[in-house]
Queue: 4 jobs
Job 1
Amino acid sequence: MMSFAQRASELCRQYTAAQIHRRLKTASQARRLKIVLNGSLKEVGEDIAVEELIETLELSPGQVAVEVNGGLIVRAERAACQLKESDVVELVTLVGGG
């Protein structure tokens, strides 16, 4: 049987911090927040940052613009920007082409 430290070390090699956070929370422990995402009501985990929301939705971080409650969230601030109940989030993906 693996120790907690061994399991944590293995998880760190396999997953991003956001993915580990999601795996360690159980559904019964996690409170859900209701946000408005691109005009539609969506439930998300209580301790979710913008960066984690982008990962959860499987969007490319470099190709998405983020606005929360009318304010632009720059890429450097996404990990620190924790979502709250009733936040209004707009995600706009950038698409190339001609």
Job 2
Amino acid sequence: MDTTLIKYMKLTQTDFMDKLLSWIDSVKDHTLISILWHNNYFSDYSNSDMKTNYVKLLEYFYSKQIISINSNQLIEKYY
């Protein structure tokens, strides 16, 4: 996800977050969203903006009361 939006679509950090949050808003009801964020972006050495954006994303989820579940919880609840 992060690589697609930044590397392949060549979005700026601001555009990246705008597009991501807009997409999440459009699909968040009754939807399972899987986030793949590569851990190499968590280093201030490689790209501190991506780390900051990840924190913003988590804060956004919290503010919108979007819950997080792991794979075991998913199976228990929906299968």
Job 3
Amino acid sequence: MEVVAVRLTAEEVAALDAYAEQGHVSRSADSRQQMSGANND
């Protein structure tokens, strides 16, 4: 797995944290799920 740094606004970080907490996963895991389309209903 490769490490990728991104810059997010405070609002984007808050949204990412909320999604991750809701799914009981880390920020990284949630980001990977979102980018892979795993949570797209």
Job 4
Amino acid sequence: MAKKTVGKGHITLEEVRDACIALLKQGRRVGPWNVRLELGGRGSYTTINKHLNALGFSSHASKTRQEDD
């Protein structure tokens, strides 16, 4: 059974997780702004931050780790 979304802005934890994975693969910073862009402008910053915190990202934008060569 498919999950029902309520309105155009409702986002799930799984969608935020998938957006984070996509951002990391692209070498982009994981934060509410970029996650919302990755989601096509969907979701409130409050909800995105809540999901980022649940996923272990701080409420402040996290930078991807770059290793020294």
